[in-house]
Amino acid sequence: MENLNNCKPILSFHSTRTNKYKWLIDNSIDMISIHYPDGRYSYVSPSFTETLGYKSCELLYKFPGDFIHKDDLNTALKSYESLLLGQETVESTFRQQMKNGEYMWLEAKIKAIRDETGEILEILSFTRDISEKVKYETTLLQAKHELNNIISNQQGMVIQIIKEQFKYIYAIFTGELVHVIGWTPEEVVGKTPYEIFEKETADYLVNQYDLAWESQEKVTFEYTTSNGYYLLVKIKPIVENGEVIQLIGSCVDITPLKEAEQQLIQSEKLSVVGELSAGIAHEIRNPLTAIKGFLQIMKMEQDNKYFEIMESEINRIEFITNEFMVLSRPRTETRKKMKLCTVMEDVLFLVDTEAFKKRITIKQNIDEDVFIEGEEYQIKQVFLNIIKNAIESMSKEGVIHIDVTQQDEKVFIKISDQGCGIPPEKLTYLGKPFYTTKQKGNGLGLMICYKIIKKHCGSISVESKLNEGTTFTIELPKVHHTNE
């Protein structure tokens, strides 16, 4: 240990009482320094010099500011000014330079020793090395910041719920899913469910929170947002000393799973319909063939207007059974490249008479160079079904527009009518088995259309306005024409 007697003056106390504690000060683990009223060092303890690596004489008569980091100097000066203004004790945290040039974080408790008039005689400073503490706090702060970034950028959503005056309040509401469902954290944090959601929704959520809080068990439930997203929510209570202090929750978007579930249910329905249709069609077609044959014989033997009506109705029954058979009977498909305008001309030839009777004009806008690929009979069946529906929906004269556009690798066929339109609540059910908006319909026609287009790697979408009309948009893959 350095011989302090080599540096004069080592300790300059203004009172004999303070001198009594010189031995304690010299041997203290804490870094102790005494300063003149202007702030210069008048004494530094051995622990002070050992910690910072200086000799006593390298510090005596110098100002602490000469060793304090420039970014912390202003804070240290304000502490000294507080003493001059009469404050008895101040605390300050700063970085002080060591002998090797590095900086060390220090925490100082500084006290002014005054005479009877209040004049400062000297300043006493008790200083501790808090570098490890600052390092730990910095690491903790950085980890917290990184955790917040991870949470706020994770695909789901994380929530923290506290309870104040018997009310649940959102303390954390973050994650990418927050913005997806139409919220921002600022709109939710600090508010109760009743300040954010409609009463029915808020009641449901609060019941789930109550269940988790009272049972002290994890609760899992599903929640549908106002903009149509399905969320899976898991709420876990945090328990301390046998009491719940908060709820921590996570939410994930299960909309794709719900959609897949609905598709699976729809697929199962189609499978059942296919199985039923095979039996029904066979049971009907056998007697139907006999009836139709005898009716034709009777029609040849005598002329009766009722025969035509009966034959028309039997043909209708036969048409329905054929639609059933499409669902159940496997077909050998022959796919080929087709010019779309040619396919459409063949279909329009079949409906021209019906359209003419109702004074409906069909206008088409199809380029010659638009080609698609598929089973010709099935594609024609789709166009025929949708165009016939358009004609039937129009109770007065009007126009049906058929427009074809190409975008990227897709072909879009839009068939628009000026008919009665379809109510919004019924649009989502189109294409479902046995669902129809027509009085005499069976719902199989559109269902078969959806099935055919899906098999051709396409899709059907519908837009409609009541008393204005409906537009069916058929999307199919584009085929590039080559001269073969």
Which features would summarize this protein structure in a list?
484 residues; alpha+beta; Helix Hairpins; 4 domains; five-stranded antiparallel β-sheet; 15 helices; 17 strands; 27% strand
Report on the structure:
There is one protein chain. The protein has 484 residues and is α+β, with helices and mostly antiparallel strands. It has 4 domains: 4-129, PAS domain (Beta-Lactamase, 2-Layer Sandwich), CATH 3.30.450.20; 141-253, PAS domain (Beta-Lactamase, 2-Layer Sandwich), CATH 3.30.450; 257-328, Helix Hairpins (Orthogonal Bundle); 335-477, 2-Layer Sandwich (Heat Shock Protein 90), CATH 3.30.565.10. The protein has 15 helices and 17 strands. The protein has helices at 16-19, 22-26, 46-52, 70-84, 131-153, 176-180, 185-188, 193-196, 199-215, 255-301, 305-328, 340-357, 376-393, 424-427, 444-455; strands spanning 31-35, 41-44, 89-97, 103-114, 120-129, 157-164, 167-174, 219-224, 230-240, 243-253, 335-339, 360-365, 371-375, 398-407, 410-416, 459-465, 469-477. Helix 10 (255-301) packs antiparallel against helix 11 (305-328), helix 12 runs parallel beside helix 13 (376-393) and helix 13 packs antiparallel against helix 15 (444-455).
